[in-house]
Amino acid sequence: PSSLRETVVEVPNVSWDDIGGLEDVKKEMLEMVQFPVEYPEIYEKLGMNPSRGVLFYGPPGCGKTLMAKAVANQCQANFISVKGPELISMWLGESEGNVREIFDKARQASPCVLFFDELDSIAHQRGGGGGAGSEAMDRVMNQLLTELDGVEAKKNVFVIGATNRPDIIDPALMRPGRLDQLLYIPLPDREARSAVMKAKLRKANYSESLNLDKIAEVTHGFSGADLAEIVQRASKFAIREMVQIHMGEVRKVREHAAAALEDGVEFDEH
Ligand code: ATP
Question: Where do the AAA+ ATPase domain residues begin and end (predicted)?
């Protein structure tokens, strides 16, 4: 479908510093994508193939997409993002064609990070039965495995899958050489919540008196997306206030000027 053809391909502008917390995951990802490039001889010596993909799992809104983008940015690689349901088509043969097409696109754009969001919607265990829709999913899944195993796919295309339900993902997808690393992206703890807000305010010139730790303390259970929303609302509030102050000042200047003119006061040259 046209939505797939219009997929944007570019190096994302998300840096590691835009991600709050998740230090372990950052470290793991760095090693995974950078070591093979920097130390190919070590891999060769050990007869190891570098990992070609990972599966991120965890609750929604905690940085899976953000992390995938930062990895691409770190490698100066292009980034293609597809949501699982976008691949499913009611037309026979079109669903697996979509998968092929997206991998072709990634290879053409290599080096490229290919991100499959909402993977559970297509990668559930095969052969589950349940009508035409599920057969299409089986075919998508088979095509996905074929592409992951293809020699060509390994050409500088790094695949990241994301799901909230790793328990229903077909284990075949996680065999060695496929998405063989499973990384948990958790809800932020107190320290990470503070870090997420700091990351969001990275470019803002905020007051020293703003106590992010205090906010982190009372936001237990908030996701990164929830915290981003708080910062967003606070920023809007601050903007509104600044605009009001500015308008107030403009008004005052106007009033002074009008009063001065009425009094017939000449503005002096100095
Ligand atoms: P979903 O499972 O819903 O796709 P996700 O885990 O992929 O969610 P993201 O899209 O990465 O979540 O995060 C959504 C938004 O929440 C981000 O654009 C960002 O503003 C904010 N956010 C989430 N986690 C973090 C984080 N660790 N650091 C900074 N911002 C974050």
Answer: 50-189
